[in-house]
Design goal:
Blueprint (H helix, E strand, L loop, with lengths): L8 H32 L2 H28 L2 H22 L5 H30 L5 H30 L2 H18 L15 H19 L1 H32 L7 H25 L9 H10 L1 H10 L3 H33 L5 H13 L2 H14 L5 H17 L10 H5 L5 H19 L1
Helix pairs in contact: 1-2, 1-4, 1-5, 1-6, 2-4, 2-13, 2-14, 3-4, 3-6, 4-13, 5-9, 5-12, 5-17, 7-8, 7-13, 8-9, 8-13, 8-14, 8-15, 9-12, 9-17, 10-12, 10-15, 11-12, 11-15
Length: about 450
């Protein structure tokens, strides 16, 4: 790689394309599940549909990693963005003409599947676009873009949805995905075709075996970290995905305020927390080390208890709502600190010729328990409709147990990263982490 700067043309095009594409994705991911919940009013059905729709993302994530290592990553991004634009166009045409539950289920399955195949291509392209010392700043930049889109998307989506309904949001997302795909055509990502034998199924089977063997036996710390994330996703992340819209739009009784718009603000608080967490990753880069991850996760987990207490004891709807919003903000702040560290470690530990597959397999393991959690919490909230605080207490206690147990995992031990990193030493990681602060200052300006 001849580039010696972070902010060079191709990486900037990736970032801009991500801004546009992720904004369209965020307003869709906000509006479609909320529309389903509003139309059916059933927490159990909402959880079940969300869980089923999430499965294709898990299945296609490792396949996306295989494709990302064997096909030009730019072409993957272009094709998938154009495809998403076409799918949403079909949804606009069929809306109101076919059964809404079936239509939204199929649409969400397709959109989540595309997202599962799309993200490995983006993550795997970073080491090819920036020098090694800029990998963490590049990840911080992608995280900031994701957070900004997550902040702006739900807030705008909530306002538009509450005033005009679902249709304008669909039109906005169609334009976003089409514009992103067109811009990505002009990105150049270095690509060297790998020699292969056999048909696509033989290649896919070989690549998956190779990736999981590497994670399980050569770098077991990645395997253990992925299992940790799977547990947290099942009991904490799934709770927020299912519980937050149910609590805000159904449990809290807003009298003079549109509940859907308030849910949009709550989603914006989640994204704002992620944004500040990304900035903090750079500012605290000298102090953050791998063995601090359990502490960060513990702080993230503790934010569930104020939500439960607010739902149980708060006399005012608005007081309960703002406690929930503030708790969600800090939850995502700590989650972003954790995720940036983990992704940077993963990218540096994986061999370059396997990086797409390793990332996608690790993501697949981490996400595999999420549909179980979503389905479980849908039924849990339906069962505990009169006691909405109980799921939050339950999730908090289980997540604390998982977090405390994670101290035994080698990935989070003090000496793990020094012992296992092959492509960079720990001092290089710290050097790259410090660059994140510079990136964040530029973004702030």
């Amino acid at each position: 790689m001849n580039n010696t700067k972070l902010f060079q043309k191709d990486f900037l095009l990736v970032v801009i394309g991500q801004i546009i594409s992720l904004f369209g994705n965020q307003i869709l991911r906000f509006a479609l599940p909320l529309y389903l919940l509003n139309q059916t009013g059933s927490a159990a059905l909402f959880g079940m549909i969300s869980a089923i729709a999430f499965i294709p993302m898990i299945v296609l994530c490792p396949i996306g990693g295989i494709i990302a290592d064997r096909v030009n990553k730019r072409n993957i991004m272009v094709i998938l963005d154009f495809s998403t634009s076409a799918i949403v166009t079909v949804l606009c045409i069929l809306l109101g003409k076919v059964d809404i539950v079936l239509l939204l289920l199929i649409t969400m399955i397709l959109l989540y599947g595309i997202q599962g195949a799309y993200q490995p291509a983006v993550q795997a392209s970073i080491p090819s676009l920036v020098p090694t010392q800029y990998i963490m700043p590049a990840n911080a930049m992608i995280n900031l873009v994701n957070s900004l889109s997550g902040l702006i998307g739900p807030v705008i989506g909530g306002a538009v949805y509450s005033l005009f309904g679902l249709t304008p949001i669909l039109y906005m997302s169609i334009i976003c995905f089409f514009a992103s795909a067109f811009m990505e055509i002009f990105i150049h990502i270095p690509f060297h075709k790998q020699a292969s034998q056999g048909n696509i199924f033989t290649i896919a089977s070989h690549d998956l075996k190779e990736s999981f063997h590497y994670i399980r036996h050569e770098q077991p710390s990645i395997w253990q970290g992925s299992l940790l994330i799977a547990g947290i996703n099942m009991f904490l992340s799934a709770l927020i995905m299912i519980g937050l819209p149910i609590v805000v739009t159904q449990t809290l009784s807003f009298e003079h305020v549109d509940a859907n718009r308030m849910y949009g603000y709550a989603q914006g608080a989640l994204a704002a927390g992620s944004l500040i967490g990304g900035m903090s990753a750079g500012a605290l880069s000298k102090k953050l080390k791998a063995h601090h991850c359990p502490v960060i996760l513990l702080l993230c987990t503790m934010t569930l208890f104020p939500i439960g207490l607010a739902l149980q004891f708060a006399k005012s709807t608005m007081i309960a709502y703002w406690i929930i919003v503030v708790s969600c903000f800090f939850m995502m702040l700590f989650a972003a600190l954790f995720s940036i560290q983990m992704m940077a470690y993963l990218q540096m530990m994986a061999p370059k010729h396997l990086i797409g597959k390793i990332i996608s397999c690790a993501m697949c393991i981490g996400m595999c328990a999420s549909p179980l959690g979503q389905g479980m919490y849908g039924g849990f909230f339906q069962l505990m409709k009169a006691y909405p605080a109980v799921p939050f207490y339950f999730a908090g206690c289980v997540s604390i147990i998982i977090t405390l147990a994670s101290k035994r995992y080698s990935l989070l031990s003090p000496n793990c990263f020094r012992q296992r990193i092959k492509r960079c030493n720990y001092n290089t990681l710290i050097t790259t982490a410090r660059m994140t602060a510079k990136v964040n200052r530029i973004v702030n300006i």
